[in-house]
Fold this protein.
Amino acid sequence: MKTPREIKLTIDGKEITALEGSNLVTVAQQNGIFIPSLCYYDHIDPPLGTCRVCTCNIDGKTGPACMAKVKEGMEVEIEQEALNDLRQAIVEMIFAEGNHFCPSCDKSGNCDLQHMGYEMGMTHSRFPHLFKEQLIDFGPKRMIIEHNRCVRCLRCVEEVKTKDGHRVFSFCNRGNKAMIGIDYEKEAELTETEALNAMDLCPTGAILVRGQNALPFGDRRFDLKSVVKTPSLVKEEEKKQQHLEKKTIATISLAGCFGCHMSMLDIDLGLVDLIELVDFNKSPLTDIKSFTKRCDIGLIEGGCCNSENLEVLREFRQKCDILVAVGECSIWGGLPAMRNMIPLEECLEEAYLNSITTEDGEYIVPYHEDLPKILDKVYACNEVVKIDYFIPGCPPSANHIWKAVKNLLWGEQYSVLYPEFKYD
Ligand code: SF4
Ligand code: SF4
Ligand code: FES
């Protein structure tokens, strides 16, 4: 067999030496250059090329880096505004298509998809979440297959095999009905170690092994990252127009748990400094129930699950110059949106009629004209009104919230440490 020769290529203008024919993503990694990737797994050759998260420019053409083999004179561009945006849009679509409730996911902190979101500085998805009803398959002997989280990368189809070489997973259906199938008999032939390897191989939390709980904080694969690049929310030219006069803030909790408000209070004595800079108007923090003036900024916790939430949110949009969605529930529905995959009628029956706490003869779904009407699903705030900025987290840390607010109000420098930005 011919020994591969050394060649030279450039990645974002940096000259690199590599063995001809090596995979571009691996070559970049070996040289400390990060190309986002999700389905790529260096043991699988030819690569799967199913996710397109690794899209970059190769010799003037846009395409997946994981499908490219390096050659003499190759010119690769990764860091370009349009390419960054395109890759982020792909990750946003993956999130919007699945049902990803990270705070309740065993893979959180070990998940490649979640990590991609963080690395790209994704704050929200610009695509509407589909909330498709998906199967959670408890049929296999050792595994649980959580189709809500499967990104159909096909790693499992390609790699997970029994000792005699039979595939355990398969790819079924087409289009938006496509899904991963599992052969229960073949799965039962896997050893515990092989099942655990399949769980590790999956880039998301779609393959779980019974009895294996989530790892504690600090022991997870992506816990050690230290810094995230966070772009300034306010552009330089806008900063010049900022004044340092006292500003007015309003806050509200819609369909949320008040965790984001608790987090706002977490700056402890920092609140005393903040009071010098801002007046709080309508807010659970002040117990002021109605707006007494127009506000510079409104912070919204929670999504919209009932008619009152809609009214309040619309009022905030009218009365606040800048509206910020704080926390996952306001950004896309968060944990309350777990009900979005189930018809409302079934949710109400489960809560009020079939509940173990329902008294005999008290089978009533509460209804009164004074009670807010429950909506068919939980809506993200930006599905109802225009949201200017998003601060992700469940909840976002106090430092993250106030750094973002100070940046928006006075153009103060804004950068957050990775642990402040990360919330899983
Ligand atoms: S698989 Fe789990 S941790 Fe990963 S993005 Fe989905 S819900 Fe979040
Ligand atoms: S189960 Fe996991 S490894 Fe298999 S296709 Fe889905 S995301 Fe990929
Ligand atoms: S990592 Fe390249 S297409 Fe998925």
